[in-house]
Structure formats: C-alpha cells, structure tokens
Amino acid sequence: MMRSRALFAGGGIALAAGIVAVAAFFWVQAEAPEAATSQATGATAQVTRGPLLDTKTLTGTLGYGDVTELRPSLGGASAMVTWIAHEGATPNRGEPLYALDGQPAILFYGSVPQHRTLRFDRGVAAPAWVELEQARNSLEAAQLNLDVEAARLADAEARVADATRRLNDALSPTHAIAEFIQLSGAVSTAEAKVGRMTKLSAAQLAPNVEVSTAQAELAAARAAFDGAIRALRKDIATAGLDTVTARLGVAEATVKLDEARTVHETMAAEAAADTDIRQLTENLSALGYGSPLPDQVRAWQRDIGLSVTGIVGPRQIVVAPGPVHITTHRASVGEALTVGSANGGAILDFSGTDKLVVVPMAVSDQALAILGRAVAVTLPDDTDVAGTITEVGSVVTDGNIAVTIAIEDQAALGALEVASVDVTFVSDSRDNVLSVPVAALLARPEGGFAVEAVADGARSLVPVDTGLFAAGRVEIAGDDIAEGMRVGVPQ
Hints:
Largest sheet: 6 strands, antiparallel, barrel
C-alpha cells in the first residue's frame, strides 16, 4: 500500500511539472506572439557594424604571364647564333639578349619596336630613314624601267606600222616608195624585154638565147619583188611579237611602279613620326650618353660591341616595356637561323619579370571578374598577398575564361616562380552595415525574420529586414536594431 502511494505521488509530481511547462509556454507566447520560436537561453552574439563581403575562392597559377616569342630580324638572310642569355636570366635596359654573327641585340625599354633603320649623320639634325631612301630609289628605278619598256613598245609599234605601210605600198597597183618603184620598174622593164626578144626570135631576128636571157632577168626581177614582200611580212611578224612582249613588259613595269609608289607613299606619310627616335634618345640618355644624338649612337655602339656605323636597325635592338625574363631557348649557340628554318627563325621566348596569377574562371562566374577590383591571393604557405584584376579574357576555352591578376608586392612572392594558388574574389559587398550570425535569425509565422534581443537578462523578439548573406553572417536592419546590442544564438 505504501508502494502504491509512492507511485501515485511520483505521477503527481510529473503531472504538476507538465502543467507548469504548458503554462510557461502559453505565457511566453502571450508575451511575444509575433515569433514562432525562441533561441535556447544562454548563448548570445553582438550586432556589429562594418563591411560585409560575399566571396568565392578559385584556383589559379602563379607564373610570369604571357610569353613572347622573339624572332630576330634576318633581312631574308641567314645568321649564326653566337650567344644567348641563359634561361632564367632577367636582362635590364642596355643589356644583350642574344648575338648573331657576333653582333649583340640590346634590350631597350619602350612600346614601339625598332621597325626601321636609321642613319645618324654627324652635323645633320634629323636621322635618315634608310628604308625610305631605298623605297625612293626603287620608285625611281621602277619609273625608269617603265620608260624603257614604253620605249620598246613604241619602237615595236612603229616598226609594225612602217612595215605595214611599206607592204601596202608594195601590194598597191601604183607605188609611192622608191624601193618598190624601182623593183616594180625592174619587173616591167624585164617583161618588156621578154616581149621584144620573143617577137624578134619569132621573126628570126634574135637568137633563142636572148629570149632565155630576158626570161631569166624577168624571173630575177620578180623574185626580188617577191623577196621584198616576204621580208616585209617577216618584219611585221617580228615587230608584232616584239610589240606583244613590250606590252607585257609595260604591264609588269606598271604594276611594279604602282607597288613601289604605294610603298614609298606609305613610308613618306610616316616619315614625320619620331616615336622610335625619341625612344632611342630616352634609352641612350638613361644609359648615360649625353652628347648630340649621332655621337651618342656611335659611343653606345662602340661600348656595347656593335659595329660603329651610326646606323641603328631592327637587328640591333629588342624593345620591351621593362626588364625581361628569359623563359626558353628556341635555338642554340652555333645554329644558323633562317626565315624558313624549322623553328621559323625564333631564338628565344621571354616574359616580363613581374609574376602574376592567371585564373581559369567559368563563364557563369564572369561577374566576379571586374577590372581593377582587389582580390586576395593565398600562397602555398598560406600567406595572403593583395592582387588586382588587370585583364579579363574574351576567349572561352573549355567553358572558362582567363582572368589575370597583378601582384604589386612582388617581394612577398619570394622565390616562388610557378605555383598553384587560391584566389578569393568578392562577389558582393556592403559597407557600413549591421550584421549578425545567420544562426541568430528566427522565422516568423506570418513571414519574415526576427532576432531575439537580450538585455539585462530579459529576452524579446525584434522583427528585422535582411540584406546580404555572406561569410556566415547576414545584414539586418530594423527600428529597434542598434550596433552593440546582443542577440540570442543557438548553443
């Protein structure tokens, strides 16, 4: 009996606890009917103000960036490689990259390749453009060639006209040209003689041999006349062939003249451009040459081991924006380079000395790649360095575009040359906003969200408007939300 009472008593205690719990539930609901749930007691987080960033991390490759294939200017001839800067070298302004036939090619800084040959004559203010002079000479030669071909054509046409006129005269019943007057007269005289001799012979007044002689003279006169006509026809044919040949010559000479004129006019239109001259002057000045330009050029050529000619051309200078990094040899010392060689005349590949990062980015993420936007680059040792997006590719390969990132603090990269790195892009951001951990949000039955404000041990649900969700936090705003207040979060 005592055991039964004890069990009942225990059930009463449990029932009482249940009633208290239900009463407490309805009491809380009565105090805050606008929230569906509340956070467990104890754990809180602070409402903070500051930037909120939504990021995405992609893998990229650290390296030296785009590689330029260097093909020396061979001028249509072959040249032997006698020296090349070693792979990994970083030549600076005024230093050689390679040498052909013992003549070094020097690195100058700039944006315009040394595309023409300049001759710096002492006492002359402006340098002479050698290729323009050659183009002018070629134009003059082409004009002379056309004149010669035109004269040949005129001569051939005149010979055709003269021979045709003479032939027409020869075939005419009456002749105006002395030659055919004489030949025709000889035939007529011979015919008359044959007639007389025939009559005399018939009358037995002349021997038959006289008739034969007269007939032979007639045959000779006619042969001479016919021979003159055949010669004229041959002259017409020969002159006609010469005319056709001369016309072809005129046509070809005209084409060459037009080409030479176009080349000369194109160069002449660019003759006033002096970017390459100013570029050369700036480089020589940076190397310490301060005398008049013709003297600067000769002094520089002497010091660097070039032939001292005062002539500067594409074969002597390689232009790049700054120092270069020799990445790969495409030829070897002792090799003869030609335009048609297996490597196309290439001697080496180079890049800039600044290391950069290239990230293959899915086209769907292209909105992350905004020129000039800052990114964070995480190196293999977990060190973070700042980067800036400098180029966004437009060619899609395997669904990706190439995004190039510059690293301003090159020293932070240390000895790294090629490495896989992580790049953190900002996809969205808010400045100077209030935010809390996402876990602090409570769903309201009628829609929207609230947070549980905790102050002096009391808790109350406060409706909020949400903004950006990023990095485990959410932007919030509301009339009763302030920086520094604490809100409940799950434990």
